[in-house]
Write a structure and sequence with these properties.
The complex is a heterodimer of chains A (102) and B (173). With 102 residues, chain A is an all-alpha fold. Chain A has 3 helices and no strands. Classes of the chains: A mainly alpha (102), B mainly alpha (173).
């Protein structure tokens, strides 16, 4: 039986985190930047769960639960901010949204 | 000891297709110009992740992943994408600027660094786990005893986020 080493789970999580980081740094649509942040949170969750499975402790699952809850709160607030920004400036391009007071 | 899914099936036959699916969805999200396509690619990634969580014996988190991420958060994102109704000229063109090259390089460098750091963990996952590991009962017992205060704080956080979202997004109160 082929067993997958923990390093492969961690490498996959690292790759997902890097893709999320690239989305945050490179993309200019605020919605895609937001999706990149979500992807990074998920990559962190995957790392936590892989270690939790290896060590046989359930506390990692509790942390992943809290991460999901905080991500849900962040999604609601972030998307509300995006709607508010779009209402006043007619764009959500993060290169153009660069003034604190509009 | 309870039987683990990964021990009864060949783990690699499930892991690598799911890894390809997950990473492919993430990369499609990164390169797609249309935000709707990006969101749908991310849904694919979240489903692949849920499969990986099942492989890691995290049944509750896998269910939550599908319900909260693929169900609630991505639907919310799609709502906002369609609510904003960005036109054709708002799509990002393929622009290779110095900044985006630097950003991609930074992400690639981070992955290389993490890859080297993670190389030490060559062991396979253990095949025996404590009773009730990762089930609703097992995690729920922890949540309601040892982590009761953070759990209740999370409910307050969600309530305040809900009120805050309404206040921020509403034009006039």
């Amino acid at each position: 039986m082929a067993n997958v080493p923990l390093a492969h789970y961690l490498a996959l999580a690292a790759a997902m985190f890097s893709v999320g980081l690239a989305a945050v740094l490179v993309r200019r649509n605020a919605l895609v930047v937001f999706m990149g942040v979500e992807l990074m949170l998920n990559a962190a969750n995957l790392t936590i769960l892989a270690f939790s499975r290896t060590l046989g402790v359930q506390e990692g699952h509790v942390i992943a639960f809290f991460v999901i809850a905080v991500a849900a709160a962040e999604a609601a607030i972030g998307l509300a901010v995006m709607i508010a920004v779009f209402r006043s400036r007619k764009t959500i391009n993060v290169d153009e949204v660069d003034a604190l007071k509009y | 000891m309870m039987p683990v899914l990964a021990a009864t099936l060949s783990e690699a036959w499930i892991f690598y297709p799911l890894a390809v699916l997950t990473l492919g969805g993430a990369l499609a999200m990164l390169v797609s110009r249309n935000a709707v396509y990006a969101a749908m690619s991310l849904v694919l990634t979240f489903f692949g992740l849920a499969g990986l969580y099942v492989l890691l014996a995290a049944e509750l988190i896998a269910a939550l992943q599908i319900i909260v991420y693929a169900g609630a958060i991505m639907v919310l994102v799609l709502f906002v994408v369609m609510l904003l109704n960005l036109g054709e000229d708002d799509l990002e063109g393929p622009r290779l600027s110095f900044g985006s090259a630097l950003g991609s390089l930074a992400a690639l460098g981070l992955w290389c660094f993490l890859f080297v750091v993670f190389q030490g963990y060559t062991d396979g996952l253990p095949t025996d786990l404590p009773e009730g590991f990762g089930t609703v009962a097992g995690v729920g017992k922890l949540l309601y005893t040892q982590f009761l205060l953070p759990f209740e704080a999370t409910s307050v956080l969600l309530l305040s986020a809900m009120v805050g979202a309404v206040v921020v997004a509403k034009a006039k109160i």
